[in-house]
Design goal:
Length: 475
Amino acid sequence: MNRVYPHLIQGGMGVGVSGWELAKAVSELGQLGTVSITGIWVVTARKLQLGDEGGHLRRALSHFPNQEAAKRILDRYYVPKGELRDNAFRNIPMLTYPLSRDLTELIAASCFAEVWLAKEGHSGLVAVNSLEKIQIGHLPSLYGCMLAGVDCILMGAGIPLQIYDVIDRLTEHEPATYRLSVDGASNDDVFEVHLNPAERLPLDQPVPINRPDFFPIVSTHVLAAMFNRRGVRKADGFIIEGHTAGGHNAPPRASKELSATGEPVYTEKDIADLSKMDSQYPFWLAGSRAHPSSLQQAIEAGAHGVQVGSIFALCQESNMRGELKQRVINAALSNDVSIYTNPHGSPSGFPFKEMQMEETLTDGEVYSNRQRICDIGGFRNMYRKPDGKIGFRCSAEPVNDFVKKGGTLEDAEGTRCLCNALCATVGVGQVRPGQDHYVEPSLVTVGDDLSFVADVTNGPIYTAKRAVEYLLSAL
């Protein structure tokens, strides 16, 4: 690791909440700005269909080192503002096995564009954040980020032991492989995705890559130890994230019981013993750390600093819709916040933190009135079909379809379509013209502790600069 990292890491949140605008603002302030690349290809395609306000995506794509691919993407998705013929976004291909050329190009170019824009015009460090669970898109997404000069890769929602070696291969533009987790697969089954950059994403001219660092997001010191088993290094540092953080949480290690409110029960076994962290790896603490004293305490405990998310999700530069941000801020100021850790809400199988809000997917009436549909497919699980091939199923798809593929009614009950909901949260929700122009509802995820809101604002939305100054004030 040849980079000097700051005390603050801005969390990579949601589908597009942590966009390039937020990451750039934080990075320019000397901290580690982070772009969320989870499903970013969907956001990119839809923003192009909305006219690419400001021309930022087209500017970034003009620098993508495969201009034929960039042209195909613009020809397929870009619509000058005001000329969209109907209100529905054009569907993009879903993640499949093997990955299509069109989607490979769109994923790589979208990730490139976000990182390129986040790094444009300054020398600060920029990271990206992704979910290990969404495995099929890892290779083109990482390669696209690396072509744009990303400094650090963060990944959670799984145990990403393969990523370190993948980064090594892609740094040299060499073919890379990722083994897939497939339900029902036997020891004899081999399911892998491959990317040969020279064949699938040939470059117009050579692009040298400065190898990015890799920080897995783990919940305990036990998981961190897996990345240096028998002296084989698989990470450069760690984010140690507690279960009070927003988004996906690690499931409890010791208990499958639920509380009286139906939430996972966490115990001391789910708390990292920081004294057992390997001293050769820097680490940052995450989960309810958005206070100056938390940063000070983390450093005293041996951490390099903290990763914080919700305080940046609610700031001016994040891509969460302004109306939603203001509602969350107002609720926090009036102490009227209800956060629920939903053990079954995410098709990924991980607990997911939800803020209970009317007119969002946590509203029982809104949830009941939404017609189940799976047309993005980012959180679909892979399973082995009787013929030995890979199939895809999602507990948020139409229940009959899910059950026909081997799913259960119990797993389908209450599951949210996070793909559509989180796209709606950043203003690119799909419209269903056949349903009286029904617009997909949003879903807001934040951490358990929003007490910082009263310290950074008295009502209006605040800036990323205000958040950084507040968090660093104790130092």
